[in-house]
């Protein structure tokens, strides 16, 4: 449900209207709580839930969401009172109580019906009070007394209309029209005064003051009842109250009086009867008719209106002034000569410091105001049009160059001012300040600058920090350098603090080191910058008390110098960004008085009282509702009290949670985690619910905690549940799966065993057949090889036999020839015989026969040699053949009919023709071919 936090402020709409600084107000409309407009009564439970009697029924507000419980008989609900775990309500023709069921929803129980109480026709219950174990229900005609223990019911009848029912110091008082004021003793009414004031005026409420009864009437003001005498209480607010019709009232815990009126809104009186403030529809209420007033546990004031509900954070340290008269966004403020000045984007406005009159424009200051400074007893205004000196409601333009950011006095007679286009010097002559010169050589915008150690440091958000060295007469810049020890940053700032220079950015606060001439990060000052909720790193110094301020999205921090040591103290004030709403980078705050500070904002200003900044009350988070559902099916509520089990399909959960904190200036965020799924807390979020879908089976615990004003809630709310396994992976089915798997494995084993046995048999048979075939083939191949070898041997032997035969024949012929020659010729034929012998020695036929036999013995050797060395001659091949037979030179010589020395020569020439390396052996080479 959408919750509208609208912080409402007071402004001057007419001459007679007073401009007030009001506490924050939260507004809730009928659209927010989804019921009807009128709200007749308000109460609160111990868990801090707010309950409202609405025309439509009973409203419950847990700090996050509104829930409507319609009136059982569909009539207007007029009264509500929470007692313990019961919410008592009264309406048309019925009264009773509501209790929460296991799902966190309220269920109605009718006392009137259960106890068979016959109510008067058209009777309605308008108020409920508890005392001493009895609950009193007041209609206009009766008072019903119901005992919580015995369930006994008593009825007090009246002759005339019963107007008021009040409890004061454990005594019940009521007013009966035309009769006077009664009290109830032992269940019986007793008249205590029939004074005409009490007979003729409507009594709204009865209080106790100074041990006397103080009676508030609707139109005649306050009266004391003292020993039967009626005495008027003359209050400082008498003039105001005489024209006001009071409808509801409440004595607050601090003894202030909260009054709800018919047409004048809400009025708060202090204990002395003075008006603290008044809130009307023009200044923040939904409606001017206040039907009920209630103070909750944390002192917030709740107003049930004729149209909506309002909550006033009466104890908030903040008071807020809204400038609906449109004075603009405040960029600077100052108190000077008991006058409060506000510099805005519309101009410079002023009013007397403690006045409630509206702000007025200082003459001729329309336009953007950037700064306000008191120098030399005069008020200087840095303006987009230049520099003004302000005197009461008058202004004097002393520098008409466009755009003055800031002014700083650097000597008795000189002021240095930063402008849009650099630095300028103002000079005091004859007690008058005027423009002297621009410092040449530097034209960058100079919103932040500090004079430090005879140098000028200028911070530019987009360029960084410049270090300037000026001439002695402040006429020109002699040198410019960019500081390298820090980085530039949006919304960064540069200030002087207690003779130190501080640079602040999102990365922290850096202190200038004089010795090393660099900036170094300071761990203490850096605590002022909240990087997680970063808004701006602008630091604002209140020179009157040396308090240093910083601003973030969820808090304002301030540093106080140490009183007994040099160690400062840093404190934090929780405040939501939506409340503060300052212009980022232009935050401003001034010290008003005591512990009161004024903070400029985009639509007015805030005043914070540090004395009222107290440690926040306990913030307890709780889970309000849990929904469970199957996808695409309706959601069902789940009981919150016990651990639940859900089926595997019911694995979608929606959790609703809240912290009943009604401080509208404090931000509330939530973190959650689902143990069993993750252990890490979620990122803080303003969402008040979370949805988990398709959660797997297992045990889970959902935990949620709140972050209120930057601090964790006191507790973690938890909800545990179990999602069962799907049926197909339940323990029973897992057992079945295991048994089936084992049986399947057994079947596979048996089948495999049979299969492999059969396969092995087939393989063996196949292998035997193949082996037989291979053996047969091998035998045939062996026989073939043996036959081929035998054939080859026979052929070789035949050739050898033929060769030997031919040699024998040839040698026989040769010998016969020699014999015949010797017989026929004698000595004269010796020469012819020698010639015949030589011819036979050189006969090439012998070589051819040798070659053929050699080739048969060593197939293709000579062809291989010829292919590798085509340049070899037949004689060379012949030598190769002899070497292949591993014959020595001495053995080769007679075969070639040459000397061994000639064989060596032939071997050498053969090496050269074969181009063998020097270290290669010729015989080995030929053997390896």
Describe this protein's structure.
By secondary structure, this protein is α+β, with helices and mostly antiparallel strands. The chain contains 13 helices and 65 strands. Strands 59, 61, 63, 64 and 65 form a 5-stranded mixed β-sheet that branches. Helix 11 (889-896) packs across helix 12 (900-914). The chain is elongated. The chain starts with 24 loop residues before the first strand and ends with a helix. Residues 1-17 have low confidence and may be disordered.
Looking at this protein, list some descriptive labels.
929 residues; alpha+beta; five-stranded mixed beta sheet; four-stranded antiparallel beta sheet; 13 helices
State the end-to-end distance: 103 Å
- Report the count of strand segments: 65
Name the helicity range: 10-25%
Instruction: Please give the radius of gyration in angstroms.
Output: 58 Å
Coarse morphology? elongated
- Which structural class fits the helix and strand makeup? alpha+beta
Task: Report the major sheet.
Answer: 5 strands, mixed
Strand content: 35-45%
**Overall pLDDT level:** 89
Contiguous low-pLDDT stretches (5 residues minimum) are: 1-17
> How many helices in DSSP terms?
13
């Amino acid at each position: 449900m959408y919750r509208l936090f609208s912080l409402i402020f007071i402004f001057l709409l007419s001459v007679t209207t007073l401009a007030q600084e009001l506490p924050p107000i939260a507004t809730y409309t009928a659209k927010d709580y989804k019921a009807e407009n009128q709200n007749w009564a308000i109460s609160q439970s111990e868990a801090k839930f707010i309950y409202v009697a609405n025309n439509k029924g009973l409203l419950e507000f847990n700090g996050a969401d509104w829930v409507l419980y319609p009136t059982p008989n569909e009539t207007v609900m007029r009264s509500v009172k929470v007692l313990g775990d019961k919410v008592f309500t009264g309406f048309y023709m019925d009264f009773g109580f509501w209790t929460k069921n296991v799902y966190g929803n309220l269920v109605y129980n009718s006392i009137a019906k259960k106890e068979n109480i016959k109510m008067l026709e058209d009777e309605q219950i308008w108020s409920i009070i508890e005392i001493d174990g009895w609950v009193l229900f007041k209609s206009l005609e009766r008072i019903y007394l119901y005992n919580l223990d015995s369930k006994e019911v008593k009825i007090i009848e009246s002759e005339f209309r019963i107007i008021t029912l009040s409890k004061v110091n454990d005594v019940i008082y009521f007013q009966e029209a035309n009769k006077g004021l009664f009290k109830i003793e032992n269940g019986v009414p007793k008249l205590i005064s029939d004074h005409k004031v009490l007979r003729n005026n409507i009594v709204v409420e009865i209080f106790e003051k100074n041990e006397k009864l103080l009676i508030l009437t609707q139109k005649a003001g306050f009266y004391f009842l003292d020993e039967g005498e009626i005495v008027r209480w003359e209050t400082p607010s008498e003039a105001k109250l005489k024209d006001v019709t009071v409808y509801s009232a409440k004595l607050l815990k601090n003894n202030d009086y909260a009054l709800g009126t018919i047409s004048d809104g809400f009025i708060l009186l202090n204990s002395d009867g003075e008006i603290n403030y008044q809130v009307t529809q023009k200044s923040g209420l939904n409606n001017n008719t206040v039907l009920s007033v209630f103070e909750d546990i944390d002192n917030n004031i709740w107003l049930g209106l004729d149209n909506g509900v309002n909550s006033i954070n009466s104890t908030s340290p903040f008071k807020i002034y809204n400038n609906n008269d449109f004075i603009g966004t405040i960029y600077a403020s100052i108190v000077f000569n008991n006058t409060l000045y506000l510099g805005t984007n519309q101009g410079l406005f002023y009013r007397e410091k403690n006045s409630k009159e509206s702000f007025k424009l200082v003459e001729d200051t329309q336009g953007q105001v950037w700064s306000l400074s008191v120098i030399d007893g005069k008020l200087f205004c840095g303006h987009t049009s230049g520099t003004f000196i302000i005197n009461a409601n008058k202004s004097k333009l002393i520098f008409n160059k466009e755009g003055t950011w800031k002014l700083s006095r650097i000597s008795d007679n000189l002021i240095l001012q930063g402008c849009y286009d650099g630095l300028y010097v103002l000079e005091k002559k004859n007690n008058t300040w005027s423009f002297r010169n621009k410092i040449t050589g530097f034209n960058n915008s100079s919103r932040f600058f500090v004079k430090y150690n005879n140098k000028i440091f200028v911070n530019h958000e987009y360029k960084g920090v410049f270090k300037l060295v000026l001439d002695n007469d402040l006429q020109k810049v002699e040198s410019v350098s960019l500081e390298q020890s820090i980085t530039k940053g949006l919304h960064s700032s540069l200030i002087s603090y207690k003779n130190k220079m501080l640079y602040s950015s999102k990365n922290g606060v850096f202190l200038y080191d004089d010795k090393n001439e660099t900036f170094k990060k300071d761990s203490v000052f850096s605590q002022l910058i909240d990087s997680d909720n970063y808004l701006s790193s602008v630091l604002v110094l209140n020179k009157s008390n040396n308090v240093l301020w910083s601003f973030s999205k969820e808090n304002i921090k301030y540093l106080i110098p140490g009183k007994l040591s040099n160690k400062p103290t840093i404190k934090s004030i929780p405040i939501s960004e939506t409340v503060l709403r300052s212009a980022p980078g232009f935050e401003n705050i001034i010290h008003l008085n005591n512990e009161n500070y004024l903070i400029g904002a985009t639509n007015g200003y805030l005043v914070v009282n540090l004395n009222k900044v107290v440690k926040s009350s306990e913030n307890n988070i709780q889970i309000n509702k849990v929904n469970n559902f199957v996808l695409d099916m309706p959601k069902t509520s789940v009981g919150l009290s016990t651990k639940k089990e859900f089926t595997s399909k019911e694995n979608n959960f929606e959790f609703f949670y809240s912290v009943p904190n009604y401080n509208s200036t404090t931000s509330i965020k939530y973190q959650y985690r689902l143990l069993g799924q993750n252990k890490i807390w979620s990122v803080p979020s303003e969402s008040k619910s979370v949805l988990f879908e398709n959660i797997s089976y297992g045990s889970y615990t959902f935990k949620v905690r709140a972050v209120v004003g930057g601090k964790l809630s006191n507790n973690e709310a938890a909800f545990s549940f179990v999602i069962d396994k799907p049926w197909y992976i339940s323990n029973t089915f897992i057992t079945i799966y295991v048994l089936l798997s084992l049986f399947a494995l057994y079947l596979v084993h048996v089948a495999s065993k049979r299969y492999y046995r059969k396969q092995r048999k087939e393989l063996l048979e196949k292998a035997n057949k193949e082996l037989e075939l291979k053996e047969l083939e091998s035998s045939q191949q062996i026989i073939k090889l043996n036959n081929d070898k035998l054939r080859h041997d026979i052929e070789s032997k035949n050739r050898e036999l033929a060769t030997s035969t031919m040699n024998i024949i040839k040698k026989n012929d040769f010998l016969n020839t020699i014999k015949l020659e010797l017989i026929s010729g004698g000595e004269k034929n010796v020469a012819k015989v020698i010639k015949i012998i030589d011819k036979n020695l050189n006969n090439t036929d012998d070589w051819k026969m040798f070659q053929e036999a050699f080739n048969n013995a060593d197939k293709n050797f000579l062809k291989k040699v010829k292919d590798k060395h085509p340049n070899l001659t037949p004689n060379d091949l012949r030598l190769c053949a002899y070497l292949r037979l591993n014959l020595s030179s001495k053995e080769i010589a007679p075969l070639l009919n040459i000397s061994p020395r000639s064989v060596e020569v032939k071997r050498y020439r053969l090496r050269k023709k074969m181009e063998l390396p020097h270290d290669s052996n010729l015989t080995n080479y030929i053997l390896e071919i």
